[in-house]
Write a structure and sequence with these properties.
The chain has 147 residues and is mainly alpha-helical. The chain has a domain of 95 residues: Winged helix-like DNA-binding domain superfamily/Winged helix DNA-binding domain (Arc Repressor Mutant, subunit A, Orthogonal Bundle). It has 6 helices and 2 strands; from the N terminus they run αααββααα. The protein has a two-stranded antiparallel ribbon. Helix 2 crosses helix 3. It starts with a helix and ends in a 10-residue tail after the last helix.
């Protein structure tokens, strides 16, 4: 599985918002600056995350974005699924009927295990955990949270 820039930028933004959870709306310009993401592209990603119910957005001078629920209740998997959709390493993993060789394919069996492991890891890793890991990893980088 490989994340697109959309997934990468979305995860960065969500970890940034997790780090600022409870502090009110965060302007997209601030997220873009801290995460070194083009603001125009970030705005498109944030729209998708809002439509998926992971973000709330407020307009106006005091507006910005905030997580729709606690960062402890949003997983990496939630974000990846919202932005990337199905992320199986090959088409036959989610749809065995796609390939006539699937029923007896040993290669597919390994890829199913890889996919299961990745999905379970993403589902069990919360934004709160990621934000904490980045605070610990970059204590001298005052509010810079990278993935």
């Amino acid at each position: 599985m490989r994340l697109t820039m959309k997934g990468d930028y979305g995860l960065r933004a969500m970890v940034d918002l997790a780090a600022h959870f409870g502090q009110g709306p965060v302007p997209s310009a601030d997220i873009a600056t801290r995460q070194q993401v083009p603001e125009h592209f970030l705005d498109q990603v944030l729209i998708l995350l809002r439509r998926a119910g992971l973000l709330k957005s407020l307009r106006g001078p005091q507006g910005g974005h905030m997580l729709a629920r606690s960062p402890a209740l949003i997983s990496m998997g939630d974000v990846i699924n919202a932005l990337e959709g199905p992320t199986a390493p090959i088409e036959c993993v989610p749809t065995p009927s796609w390939c006539q060789l699937s029923p007896g394919c040993g290669f597919r069996d390994i890829l199913v295990q890889v996919d299961d492991f990745a999905r379970n890891l993403f589902a069990s890793t919360t934004l709160e955990q990621l934000a904490h890991r980045h605070r610990v990893a970059t204590p001298d980088r005052d509010a810079m949270y990278y993935i």
